[in-house]
Model the fold of this input.
Amino acid sequence: MHPALFEILPENQIPANAFENSRDLKAALELQIAHMLIHETEKLWQVLYRLDVSEKKVSQVLQNFRQNEWPEKLTELILEREKERHYWRSKFKTD
Done:
């Protein structure tokens, strides 16, 4: 997991089975992103940048979805980016 994710979801808030059950991780992230959208918007944008989530995709979410859908869609973008990062790391991993 990218260290910047811990700025969204502190380690003590990550569900115990988050890596076996991505639904729990997704739900926890959505709740925290909803909070950040209201109370820590600037920090959320900084974390999305550090996670290398596409600005274009974030803009599409903000333009094409209702505000109450933003936490879910932004969470999906984060998890999608984490999967991409994991794929490329494993592809180029040296033993």
User: Anything to note?
Assistant: The longest helix spans residues 70-91. The chain has one domain: 5-91. The two ends are 20 Å apart (CA to CA). The mean pLDDT is 84.
